[in-house]
Specification:
5-stranded mixed beta sheet; mainly beta; 35% strand; 3-stranded antiparallel beta sheet; 5% helix; 1 helix
Length: 113
């Protein structure tokens, strides 16, 4: 699947995987050594994430039910918790360094194809 910032017309990921079952959501990115450029994990439903037992930092986008970015976290380090984002319907985890204000910010609309 592809993830596009529709507001800025920017491709954020071209190889996104959906984690929409309890097993896939629990596993998340555990066991991976890295997340490559243009790779992403979509965790649905989700309003908070952790990076326990991960080996690399990630960027995270918290998206509401209308596909609008409600929170952006850049460079979430291993063994950390994100804040709970009560308006988030799902989270997109991306390689660290993918998210910057010129690529995505709160209020942008996200398109998943």
């Amino acid at each position: 699947m592809k993830i596009i910032n529709e507001t800025k017309n920017i491709l954020l990921a071209e190889n996104a995987i959906l984690a929409d079952t309890i097993f896939k959501r629990v596993k998340g990115l555990l066991g991976k050594r890295s997340l490559q450029d243009k790779e992403a994990l979509i965790i649905k439903p989700c309003n908070s994430i952790h990076t326990f037992f991960m080996h690399f930092p990630i960027d995270a986008l918290f998206i509401d039910k209308n596909n609008k970015v409600v929170k952006v976290i850049s460079g979430l380090q291993p063994f950390r918790l994100s804040p709970v984002c009560i308006f988030s319907a799902y989270v997109i985890e991306l390689a660290s360094g993918t998210v910057s204000p010129d690529k995505v910010e709160a209020g942008d609309l996200i398109l998943i194809q």
